[in-house]
Amino acid sequence: MPPRLPGSAFWPWADACVAALGAAREEIDALNVYPVADSDTGTNLYLTFEAALAAARAVPPDSPEVLRAFVDGALRGARGNSGVIMSSLLRAAARVLLSEDSVDREPSPLVIATALTEAAAAAWQAVGDPVEGTMLSVARSAAEAAQEKAADGRGIDEVVSAAAAAAQEALARTPAQLEVLRRSGVVDAGGRGLCVVLDTSVRLLTGRWAPTAANAERGRHRIARPIPTVLRHDPAPAYEVMYLLDAEDAAVASLRKRLSQLGDSVVVVGGDGLWNVHVHGGDAGAILEAGLAAGQPYRITVATLDQAARQQGPVRRGRRVVCWAAGVGLHKLFSDAGAYVVSAGGQRCSTGDFLEAVTATGADEVVVLPNDRARVAMAEAAAAQARGTGIRVAVIPTSAQVQALAALAVHEPGRGFDDDVVAMTTAAGHTRHGAVTVAERSAMTSAGPCQGGDVLGVVNGDFAIVGGSLAGVAVQIVERLLTPGGELVTLVSGVDAPPELAEEVSRSVRAGRSDIEPVVYDGRQQRYPLLIAVE
């Protein structure tokens, strides 16, 4: 058996961290002024965790390699200075959890505290020129508080809660430790991201944190009265250079020294022959040569830190809509409406898939429809990256496939971009949506308890009905959606829908509302035999 997080909660914890960082992404980006004010710390942390989770999902869920795959994915997929440091924190913590003292049982409070301590120490060591007032300070304070509680014999929930509280206090101190933060009126962006991860851990352990607590009070992470002083910056390094490096561990000390001579924001993270290297510097070639002297660099990324230069690229024209489809039928519907479809058949998709789609359109204006609550953060992170290349991107936070049908129906590339986005957003927002699905196991839902095999009716994303037949529940859902009024009913059949389901629901609609002729599509989506929309 693999070592377990408290309560065997690795998967819920990993999913929750990705979701929480996605929700806080824009807030953290806005705080980002150190080491470079490029407004991408939140995006980089989110993408790093997303890469880690994707790597973990590539191995069997009960495999002892899950945690190793997670931290390896974080190392390989780390983005930016903050992402590389976060991967170092995760890797060092996992090393403790994977030690002989922790395998095959729940980690003790002392093991958790030790994991946080080792993580903080590794992060400080990984940075070439560590600075107080950054996520390093936040990590150290969290570890110290955890050690104190563990030494007092407190439980895991108290240890992690103390770490999260100390991290928040350390975050509040960062402007007093780093002048650029004080003058800009913000706390450290990377430290804020670490607080989101710790707060999420507390929420899962204790249930005391609301799902959006990490993002609920954005204003408190800015100083109330920032000092309006014009900053005098030294000339900024020209490039951000990142690469993975196959090298002997013994070669890393001299590599860090050489990189520190060539630039700043030096972070070298890894071990066992695999390293992730991050540097800001003016001579990208010399930075790569340093890597070649130490080992074999690959997956090399060189990006200018000048926003204007970053926006230079191939000539783009026109406007396109990018959206995610849950089934092959929906894929065809969206494609026929002129959209560039990210995926079909219920396949997993990622921020990278959205970014690739936005880039592949060749358009200079793109509207993104994620069509699923869990994919909104992915779409927004992709949009943030695409904007850095000069593409104008708007994300309409559609949470249901049928909202995209309504938005695409009013899409008009010939009008102004803002006007088009407003029209599509309005159409999607005015679409009341529902669905029917079948419970896989016994559970408590917002509509009451259910048993495996029960039919569940969904209204605007929440369980509203527990029943015995697909058609019966679907009819009730349509009636609820029509209660405030409506002129159009759309039914989208799924892979597991009985052939007569849509027609039976259609007959019921016509019997109750002779002025409505339901529109039926074959969406071929998984999990939901029927999707329903009322406009």
Structure at a glance:
The chain is of the alpha/beta class. 48% of the residues lie in helices and 18% in strands.
Could you explain how this protein is built, in words?
There is one protein chain. By secondary structure, this protein is an alpha/beta fold. 48% of the residues lie in helices and 18% in strands. The chain has helices spanning 10-31, 41-57, 66-77, 80-97, 109-126, 135-151, 156-177, 179-184, 189-206, 252-262, 284-294, 307-310, 328-336, 351-360, 373-387, 401-410, 417-429, 470-482, 501-512, and strands at 239-247, 263-271, 274-281, 295-304, 319-323, 340-341, 365-369, 392-395, 432-438, 443-445, 448-450, 455-459, 462-467, 489-494, 519-525, 530-534. A six-stranded mixed beta sheet has the order 13-12-9-16-14-15, sandwiched between helices. Strands 2-3-1-4 form a four-stranded antiparallel beta sheet, sandwiched between helices. α4 packs antiparallel against α5 (109-126), α5 (109-126) runs parallel beside α7 and α14 (351-360) packs across α15. It is globular. Mean pLDDT is 85; it is low at 1-7, 209-220, 223-236 and 307-312.
